[in-house]
Amino acid sequence: MNDVDRVPVSIVNACLRDGRGGSPTAVLGESAAGPPRRASPTGASPPAASLTDAERSRVPARFGTSHAVFVTRRDSRSALGAPKQCQSLIGADESTVDVRFFTTEGELPACGHGTVAAIAFLAEQCGGAEHRFRLRASGRSFAGHAVREGDVIHAAFDPGPVTLRDPTPVETDRVIAALGIASDLLAPGPCVASLGRTRMLIPITTPEAVAALAPDLDRLRAACDQLGLLGCYVHSAPTSAGRVVARMFAPSIGVPEDIANANSTACLAAHLADRGVTDLTVEMGDALGSPATITASARESAGRLELLVGGAAIITRTGTL
């Protein structure tokens, strides 16, 4: 067995609904120090610091997940994973944790449910009931928060600023044709939103219409590639209580349909904030047999929109590559 086969992996189901379902995500704790591909004197598995990006992209398929997340402590003196390190992980700038996200198609600048999974992984490493972390992804530093209730960890984070614009008619027509949405099912207010990567938000009239979608994924991938879109987030209009049903199609990044997409939910929260919708509860994953729930809130503070997005998570198993 070579050393890459000994890299420890946790599978985290992120964005559970009522304690079940969620999006299985592979999370690996990396070390920032030295070449680690050798077993320790105690026989413990080495951290994943020397994986290449090509190897990282193979992790999702290897574990049957849509995404893999790699967390690295910036303090190079030690790797994640030992309880004695957890005190310095909390609230200390020098102990910011770097987070990277991969699908089979390569690296992403951000991933919402992957961030929920990373926060749950860190909280599990630290033990205890409540933690705050400082995370860094794609050059942006942001806060994460975890609260444990039994085996379930409730995670929330600041997804960062969202850029919104109206789509052009060409963009809308190409995407809607690939999604197979009849014109009478469209609701007002499609939007192109950027949070790390650009995606299109498409509102349709009812949750039932969302559930019935059967897009042409090859055609959708071609349209998204041409338009520079990460994918398409199709959602129902929010109820008075802020409940939304949504599906995210992202074949361009190797994810035909995402079980849970927290960053697109944050984009929707930003889009709906000026309509007085401040809190969302979004249900996803039912079409894939894995129900998921993401929550998001939007509040004005000091002249800027503050977003918070999150979900519940549980670590279902651990193993090695």
From TrEMBL:
Source species: Sphaerisporangium dianthi
Compositionally biased tracts (Low complexity): 35-50
Region (Disordered): 23-58
InterPro entries on file: Phenazine_PhzF-like
Protein name, per record: PhzF family phenazine biosynthesis protein
Transmembrane residue ranges: none
SUPFAM superfamilies the record matches: Diaminopimelate epimerase-like (SSF54506)
Highest taxon in the source lineage: Bacteria
